[in-house]
Structures are given as C-alpha cells and as structure tokens.
Amino acid sequence: MSLAFCEHGLNRDDHARANPERLAELRASPLARLLAMEGLSPVLGDDSGLTWGEFGEAAEVVFLGLDGDAPLFAAVPEAGDTRPAYQQRPAWEALSLLPARDLAIYGGARSLVDWHARHRFCANCGAPTALAKGGWQRNCSACSAQHFPRTDPVAIMLVEHDGDLLLGRGLNFPERRYSALAGFIEPGEGVEQAVAREVLEEVGVTVTNVNYIASQPWPFPSQLMLGCHAMAQSRALTIDETEIAEARWFTRAEVDMAMDRAVPDEDKPFLPPPPTAIARHLLNWWLERG
After folding, report:
1. Under 8 Å between Cβ of 254 and 267
2. Which of 89, 113, 146, 264 has the greatest count of CB atoms below 10 A from its CB?
3. Could you tell me the CA-to-CA distances from 33 to 23, 49, 52, 73, 263 in Å, in that order?
4. How far apart are CA 83 and CA 220, in angstroms?
5. Are strands 223-232 and 152-161 parallel, antiparallel or unpaired?
6. What angle separates helix 278-289 from helix 252-259, to the nearest 10 degrees?
7. Which residues does residue 158 pair with via DSSP β-bridges, in sequence order?
8. How many CA atoms lie within 13 A of 15 on its CB side?
9. Distance between CA 154 and CA 114 in Å, rounded?
10. Element (H, E) at 282
11. How do the pLDDT tens digits run along the chain, 290 residues long?
12. How far apart are alpha carbons 161 and 231 in whole angstroms?
C-alpha cells in the first residue's frame, strides 16, 4: 500500500533553483504550467485531476520541479493558513478524487506556498523578505538572514500489549473515529524518546521497543509524520483529557473488522482513519504483520 502525498515523481532540479537565469528560462518555456489553486485548495478539472493555467499577474511563484520537460510552478497566495494544525481540516471529498500523483504534487505545493504566505517578514529583524532559490528559500535584504521552508516532525505510533492495540480519539475527532496516538517531536529528543514521552503524557502508559515503520509528508500545514510501533509495559490508562477524548484497547479481530470495507460503518467497533492518513497504513501494516 503506497502512502498518500508521496511519490510525486517530479525532478526537483536543485541546480536550476540556484540559477536565476535558468529559472527565468523555465518560466518562459512554452511548456511551463502554473498550478490552479483557490487560496490553498486545488482546482479540479473534469477528470478530477489538478488543473494547470497561465501565469497571469502572479507576483510570487515557486518552482515545483520538472514533469519530464515541463516546468511546474505554483503561485503564492495573499494569505496562508495561520490556524493550528488540528484545525486545518482539508476538503477530503475533493482530495479523495485526485489521482495519487496529483495528490502528492498538490501536497508539496500547498506546504510550500502556505509557508511563503506566512513568512513575508524576517523573524530576525522584521524587515520584508524576498523569495529566493526558486521558492525554496526567502532572504532578508536588511540583515542578510536566510529562511527555509519549515517541516515539523511528528511521531505517530501504534502501541501494542498482549496482541491488542491502543488507539485514541482526539478532542476534534468525529464520534467513534479512532487513530494512532501522535505528537510533535520536541527540541533535544529523538524519535524514540518522543514516542515514549507522548504515550506517557497522553495515556499514562510506559512503552519500550520503539521501531520505525514508515513516514509521510502531511501538508496541513507542513508536517513529516514518522510512523512507529511500540510495546506497552501495562494496560492501565490515565488519559490526558486536554488532548484525548477517549482511548481504549482493541483486539486484532476488532481492528480487522474496522478496516474491512465490506463491513458497514454502523457495524464497525470503531471508524478507522481515512485512507490518506499514515495511521491507516500503520493499521494495515499491523494486521498484515500477524
């Protein structure tokens, strides 16, 4: 099973990014295309894929990469999304229609143009910044500071004990929607330490044997999800109600039934994460692992 928002297949062409003359040539190419977006949302065509248009009067554009010989660009919108990550709920109905490759291209573009829209001023001195290196950097002419697109690492983990799996329902989740526990990796800690800390903080469980499984870029706004598996030392739960609405242990049979698309939602023991989420991939991995 491939992960959503991955494998866009573009040639990022870092050498072109660092060459203003080459970037100008790429933008002037008759093959150049600009991603059509309404704010931060994709504009879907009749085939439910991404649509590409003219550059028009776009003041700032970022170079996404080469699709074969065709240079792809995206325009920076007037405003980004300043809401916390948990409030940035994408339009799943529209995104679910996008082919996998288009979804990956859109995900990268969204993260990049959103960052630019929210970082037009220098964090060091407050002066205006200018887009540089094809959109993969912003420079401050006042203090010479260089700023780079931000990616926030997040640990997301399946916790197992005696063949059962611990899942949680976040405060903003729909009723009956359970997923893997997750949390931001903090400065000064590795992935393993972040997994252990987050599980202890959220549900009061001590874990060991943390193993990395897979990763996924998550463009709401710009996270890198690091999927892991850990073993719990006990089953007793002490839930942090400021972050988790509910948490409980599920048997393998219950997880299997929840993931079975042939089972109606009302008959499932819980509603699993959407197919685009890495948590869904982790649950499939756990079931296949046996």
Report:
1. no
2. 113
3. 13, 14, 6, 6, 43
4. 10
5. parallel
6. 130
7. 229
8. 1
9. 19
10. helix 278-289
11. 579 999 899 999 999 999 999 999 999 999 999 999 998 989 999 888 999 988 877 789 999 999 999 999 999 999 888 777 667 666 777 788 889 999 999 999 999 999 999 999 999 999 999 999 999 999 999 999 999 999 999 999 999 999 999 999 999 888 999 999 999 999 999 999 999 999 999 999 999 999 999 999 999 899 999 999 999 999 999 999 999 999 999 999 999 999 999 999 999 999 999 888 999 999 999 999 97
12. 6
Q: If you count DSSP H runs as helices and E runs as strands, how many of each does the chain have, helices first?
A: 7, 15
Which residue type, as a one-letter code, is found at position 239?
I
281: CB partners within 8 A, 6+ apart: 1, 3, 214, 216, 227
Q: Which amino acid type is present at position 269?
A: P
Q: Which helix (H) or strand (E) holds 197?
A: helix 191-203
Q: Which residues contact 48 (CB under 8 A, 6 or more apart)?
A: 97, 98, 99
> Which DSSP letter does residue 59 get?
S
Q: What pLDDT score does 47 carry?
A: 87
Listed in sequence order, the residues at least 6 apart from 36 whose beta carbon sits closer than 8 Å to its beta carbon are 42, 43, 50, 51, 52, 53
Estimate to the nearest angstrom the gap between the alpha carbon of 81 and the chain centroid.
14
In whole angstroms, what is the distance from residue 288 CA to residue 220 CA? Answer: 29
Q: Residue 2 corresponds to which tokens in the numbers above?
A: 């491939």
Kind of pairing, strands 137-140 and 129-132?
A: antiparallel
